[in-house]
Amino acid sequence: MSLTIDRDRxxxxxxxLASFSDAEAPAVTxxxxxxxxxxxxxxxxxRCENAGLTVRQDAIGNTFARWNGSDPAxxxxxxxxxxxxxxxxxxxxxxxxVMGGLEAIRGLQQSGFRxxxxxxxxxxxxxxxxxxxxxxxxxxLLSGSLSPEAARKLTENDGVTLDEVRRAAGFGSDLERVKxxxxxxxxxxxxxxxxxxxxxxxxxxxxxxxxxxxxASLRILIEGSGxxxxxxxxxxxxxxxxxxxxxxxxxESAARTSGALDTVATVxxxxxxxxxxxxxxxxxxxxxxxRDTDLQRRDIVMRAIETTCDLIxxxxxxxxxxxxxxxxxxxxxxxxxxxxxxxxxxxxxxxxIPMVSRAYHDSLFIARIAPVAMLFIPCxxxxxxRPDEYAAPEDIVRGTLVLAETLAVLSS
Length: 412
Ligand code: HGY
Ligand code: MN
Ligand code: MN
Fold this sequence. Notes:
Elements: H1 7-18, E1 28-30, H2 35-50, E2 54-57, E3 63-67, E4 76-82, E5 85-89, H3 95-111, E6 119-124, H4 137-143, H5 148-152, H6 162-168, E7 185-193, H7 198-201, E8 206-212, E9 214-223, H8 240-256, E10 264-273, E11 283-292, H9 295-316, E12 319-327, E13 331-332, H10 335-347, E14 352-357, H11 363-366, E15 372-377, H12 393-411
The structure holds (2S)-amino(hydroxy)ethanoic acid and manganese (II) ion (2 copies).
(2S)-amino(hydroxy)ethanoic acid is lined by residues 127-128, 135, 359-360.
């Protein structure tokens, strides 16, 4: 099988997909179910149909582009990722796995390979936690990690429900039919940029992920009393933003002192009310992200946050209310799929190292219903979720080649 990857087609498609954005290039903003996201989805769907793939979309907008194998009864070999992007992001996060997955399939088609197991490219809905508070919405529903009932309770900050948004986007069918049957996938591989600096530092072109870290996120509402910035003397204040500032530093300290580098905590959103320079903040809402490769260590940080909330509430006479949004277990990748990726790297005489993924991915949830592994390519300085996110063309092509090789082995 003479397998080649069409570098120019792949790179130009990644650039074209980046043009579907609500931000000035090189930044990419593509929030799930916005008109821009829907245009991008339609474009990707068209590229899949041009490749002769059969495309279907489910009730939450997960998109499946299938290359039918010779044995329709054989479980499917899957690959894919996401195309939604957080505000002011880059153009490679998720996209490399979707367009690389499509290119891997086209390369196999053109090599004359014919799969026995169908090969399916999946574009997952809302991998990013931008609108409904939690990430991986599509893969959670596919894997049964999120029930349709719980999904229906999800709303945006302004109270608009997930159901209203998905229906307006044209995905109105029954959420009950999203969950995949047991044994649907023979294996699933996600190609992704590392979103960290290790591959670049170790000058290694490929990382094979053996474990995906455990993410948790929560919202914390702090309510004090506002008032006039001139008239209210310091002893009489219950300043919600000062309380939040103390809590934010305590959250940072809890992660830094966990005893392991794998523990990370981030307060990514701080909403201040009323937001006037001469008005004492009466209400602050924090969005907090805590992760670790070790579940126990992560949960120790979560408990420390809870304790600190109570202490600050008592000390500053403010109310502090935490709402847990998600607390997911880490995932171990399947040794057989990890080995298949390693063999493909060796076959192409490409160096690879085993890695942990500190970012979460849809594979974290697909791992609950299928044997999964991820293939990482380097990204410059490890930057991601920022406009200067960058993956080199030769790294993207290498990752796509190894993905194609492995899909062929697993679908034979
Ligand atoms: O946050 C993450 O780990 C992923 O990039 N959404
Ligand atoms: Mn991301
Ligand atoms: Mn991603």
